[in-house]
Amino acid sequence: MTVHGIHHVTAISGDAQENLDFYAGVLGMRLVKKSINQDDPSTYHLFYADAEGHPGSDLTFFPWAHLAPSRKGVGLTTEVPLAVPVGSLEYWQERLMRYGTFLGALENRFGERSLTLSDPHGLELALVESDDARAFTPWEQSPVPVDKQIRGIHSVRLWERDLAKTTEFVTTIMGFSHIASENGWHRFGVAGAGSGKLLELREVPGGQRGQWGTGSVHHVAWRMPDEASELALRQQVEEAGRRPSPLIDRFWFKSVYFMEPGGVLFELATDGPGFTVDEDVAHLGEQLILPPWYEPQRPQIEAALPPLTAPQLPEKA
Ligand code: ZN
């Protein structure tokens, strides 16, 4: 039993409205679910994806503005590359500069053109040009034209103190194969590899342990076709000594959590039932969705959450 790609990435942001303005406004992704952190109902859980919330297109945030900024280091996912159409990076460079986004250089990574950037709270992203086939539904109401829109999560980049331990785990337990190495990065792929099915590791021997905070990734979730295969892989993870959580029902998918040997938090998540299980696809993300056990407290929960308004495009700094 193996994973078959990236399901979603969850990160920690600062102010919720600034997060919405950037991801729905500047990057033009669709807010497909507006919910709460199931362990901390005073915090939103915001989900950005393609128009239908396909598994693998979904970047989610806990806005914890009171946290200190994260510290980059080993045992963390240090960058989230997003897939964009081939030939779109000049459009993106111009758009991101117009809205004052902090941009890095245009690079060539494993033969693909890439542009690095930081979101308003310090999360490191990249846009990577790729024409690999993947499930994608354009968001017609996006401020970004359909032929330039983000297709989903391309890969994840992790810093590790000991490359060998994580490599052994992801190849023997999760189904990854080594694809190529370049400039200190080791690319692994699963299920045929390509956009949405890639994991990139960098060894930083003696590196300081990274710390969660605003601007850090919280966890990476990997796709499982169904609950039975997820439980089978959970068993393999347990036999490898990684102490996985029980299966947890997240309504839109079922989840198992564990730490890979280098300390990065991983999740297994089923492809179904998906974000349309509790909202019509035409109205995804418009209402605050609560887990049923929180419904009786809806008035208090809504009153405690900061109000969110339609995304505003920031003025250039
Ligand atoms: Zn998750």
Please give a structural write-up.
- By secondary structure, the protein is α+β, with helices and mostly antiparallel strands.
- The chain has one domain: 2,3-Dihydroxybiphenyl 1,2-Dioxygenase, domain 1, CATH 3.10.180.10.
- Helices cover 16% and strands 34% of the residues.
- It is built from five helices and 17 strands.
- The strands form two sheets. Strands 5, 6, 7, 8, 9, 10, 11, 12 and 13 form a nine-stranded mixed sheet that branches. An eight-stranded mixed sheet has the order 2-3-4-1-14-17-16-15.
- Strand 7 (112-118) and strand 8 form a beta hairpin.
- The termini are far apart.
- The chain binds zinc ion (ZN).
- Zinc ion is lined by residues 8, 10, 219, 221, 267.
- Zinc ion binds next to strand 1 and strand 14.
Task: Write a concise synopsis of the structure shown.
This protein is an alpha+beta fold and 317 residues long. Helices cover 16% and strands 34% of the residues.
Question: Keywords for this structure?
Answer:
single chain, 317 residues, alpha+beta, 2,3-Dihydroxybiphenyl 1,2-Dioxygenase, domain 1, nine-stranded mixed β-sheet, eight-stranded mixed β-sheet, 17 strands, 34% strand, binds zinc ion
| Bound ions, cofactors and other small molecules, one mention each | zinc ion
Looking at the overall shape, the CATH architecture is: Roll
- Give the amount of beta strand, in percent: 25-35%
- Tally of helical runs: 5
Briefly note the structural class of the backbone: alpha+beta
In the CATH hierarchy, what is the superfamily?
2,3-Dihydroxybiphenyl 1,2-Dioxygenase, domain 1
Q: Could you tell me the mean pLDDT?
A: 96
Number of domains as seen in the coordinates: 1
Helix content: 10-25%
Q: How many runs of DSSP E, i.e. beta strands?
A: 17
Radius of gyration from the alpha-carbon trace, in angstroms: 18 Å
User: Unreliable segments (pLDDT under 50, ≥5 consecutive)?
Assistant: none
The separation of the N and C termini measures: 49 Å
Main sheet: strands, sense, barrel: 9 strands, mixed
User: What letter string, H or E per element, gives the SSE order?
Assistant: EHEEEEHEEEEEHEEEEHEEEH
Which oligomeric form is depicted?
single chain
Q: How would the global form be characterised?
A: globular
Give the CATH level 1 class: Alpha Beta
